[in-house]
Amino acid sequence: MIKRIALTVAMVLSSAAIAEDAANTTTDIESLKREVAQLKRDMRVVISNQQALAEHTGLIKKNDQQAVQIGGSATLGKDTAKVVLIEFTDLHCPFCKKFNNETLPTLKEKFIDTGKIFFVGKHYPITSLHKNAYIAAKALECARSQKIDNEQHYTDAKNWLFNQGSRLYSKELSIFANEMELEQKEFDACMESDTVESAIDADIALVKQLGLSSTPAFAIGLKEGTTVTKWKTFTGAKGIDNFTDAIEQFLAIEQ
Hints:
Keywords: Coiled coil, Disulfide bond, Oxidoreductase, Redox-active center, Signal. InterPro entries: Thioredoxin-like_fold, Thioredoxin-like_sf, Thioredoxin_domain. It contains eight helices and six strands. The protein has about 260 residues and is an alpha+beta fold. The chain has two domains: about 1-60; about 70-250, Glutaredoxin. It has a six-stranded mixed sheet with strand order 1-6-5-3-4-2, with helices on both faces. A hairpin with a 2-residue loop joins strand 5 and strand 6.
């Protein structure tokens, strides 16, 4: 009996030790993940500093970049902001919708509304994938043209078109104009206008000039008047941490 009790106690103690080891292992893994994430952030800073030092000392030359024009595109935030984030969107792209619904609101709260970045909304409708995306882009611009300085109106119109998605036909355009409280005749005339098409075509030409070919696509850089300089580009519906890292790197640059 004593041997049996001793064996049972030993088994209990062994199980407890195994459970403790498993808990410690889980804690260690989480700790390692945090350390790796911090090392990645530190490495990006080091690489950025090395790049700046090399350019300053003349070891390498800065890339010859053409300044990107902000133009008459939709904007959010204060134009006195130091950093500009340009979005090229396809209103029928599910990944663009994901960025718009999940990441942009946080960016707006943390960086746009606080005056740290100036957001510029441009178009890149990929009609080979989404046949009515160009029509959606025109609808957004025609809605914006009636309330050009109303940021909330632009946001509401963009959200409506994202939610409608590819189910955008003539009937839906009338519903859109009504819900956005637009003057219908003016909206219809705008939808037939070459002017709005020229503006969208200019956005498409710009995104291709920047070497981008998918959506959502972004350019981030420093604001100099009505242009963006020292820009970098990236694509995909990235999370808020990716945008935060990029924005903070540009905010740290002395102009």
